[in-house]
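Provenance and format

Records in this collection were gathered into a single text stream. Each protein contributes a sequence line and a token line. The two records reproduced below are adjacent in the stream.
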Amino acid sequence: MRRKIRNSLNLKVFLWVFTALTVCSMLIYCIVMAVLPKQYQFTEDKQLDANAEIFVSELRTMRYDDGIKAIYNFCIRNNSAAVLLAGNEMLHFGEIASDEQTLATSSVGINVRFLDRDVNYMLVISSVMRAADRISGLLLRLLPVIFLIIIVLSVLSALICSKIIVTPIARISQISKRMASLDMTWRCNVKSSDEIGILASNLNTMAVRLQTAMQESESANKQLAADVEKFQALEEQRRHFFAAVSHELKTPLTILKGQLENMILGYGDYQNHETYLPEALETVETIGQLVQEIISITKMESMDLQNTLQEVSLSESVCHTIESILPLARDKEIQIHQELGTDLTLSVHPTLWSKALSNIIGNAIRHSPCGAHVLISLQASETESVFTVENTGVSIPDEELEHLFIPFYRADKSRSKTTGGSGLGLYIVKTILDLHGFPYSIKNSQNGIVFSIHLKGSRI
């Protein structure tokens, strides 16, 4: 029970208020019992003295018989007793029991002389504590009833006080537990203008601010996690890029070194320099082309396009690209179809955009079988424009599509120069389109492979 009281504010407030009200009420009642009869008797005595003086002055104007009647009436009115003395003559007025004689609180002795007698009388008027004793007895008899009323009123008052004071504090205590668990979705519904109401209002304000701060922190953490993940992906991609560059350069350099060493030492057919020098030159050109593409990628990644953008016609840029790559299409007997329908004006870097188109359309021709078709189309609407290049007769496993934009990745695992280039073509395309903010995708279709670009431009 003691532990329950110690852990419950409601019980503590109830017991404190109940005890305080009960003790204070009983103490006040006891003080009233002790003081009220004495104060009443003191007041009566003073009133008796004043009345006696007035009454004696009246007696001096009365005859003896009338004075005796007046003394009786005075004792009755003032709840007192009187004795009229004259020599051996003694008259008593008022009934005073023998045990009440000791209860006399005050006596007044006054010389009285009546009109019809020459004798001087001594009138002694005494007050008794009969009324005061009755008041004390009445208060004592009422004590059990008063005590019961005090208990009932104290219980009700303690319940009301504990409810008014403890209920909002209990709500705030429950809210503090939710705050400890970082739950800020609560609101403290305490409607008052006192200190508890101010505390509840401050807690609500703090909850709103903490919730906002937590949401901002969570959003910042998510953004940070996304940035870290992106950075890790870029770092992984960069490591893969340099590893692939090393591998791609290692093979032609090894071939070139072997050719040159054999020609210098004059081994076998390598004595004929005129035959192997062109092959060595071709290898050097391959290395130079690869290095040039790597340098171009590095420049593009750090390029700021804002001051280099120009208005370019999509239709014209596609036509120029097709003209430059048309000899390769004719060699493979590949037909190129255009279905642009309308034209768009694009804000792009002209050189980079031409490079991207050349790589996309060139890849479509290089990786298509002889006699295939390449379809270049534009689907324009009020909300977006989608530029697509589709080459027929070929497909790529779906699990490899997402890897096509990785530097030096080729779906042809043999990495033969007859079936593909350096493996940087689509990575260059990706870099250019990312710089321009053009979303892109590559996927298999019913007829082949479709490369799509979502363009931002104005229709002509």
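Adjacent record:
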Amino acid sequence: MFSAFFLPLIVSVLSGAAGALGIGGGGVFLLYLMVFANVEQLKAQGMNLIFFLPIALTAIFIHLKNRLIDRYAVLVTVPFGLLGAWLGIKTASLLEGDTLRLLFGLILAAVGFHELFKKTSF
């Protein structure tokens, strides 16, 4: 009973905090869905995208209002982003769940190690 209510609450707070810091709350949410809620990888990624859409639309609206978006950059990069997303969906749908989970874990670990050990200059 405790974990049925408090674990999703804790994950929500951690995801929100990670997202607010700009480090991506989706990683926390995906790990929760796959490890604790036993949701398969492809479904968890789809759920993560659904949760992301309202937040992304709100951010776009605010940034457009404050004139913080380079419209030319958007016109140049969005088509390639959509192509990359489509290719990613097609690739993910061809892989088995275990293979997809392994690749996700390896990429997550690689990004984590890169962030830990990269040299920053201030």
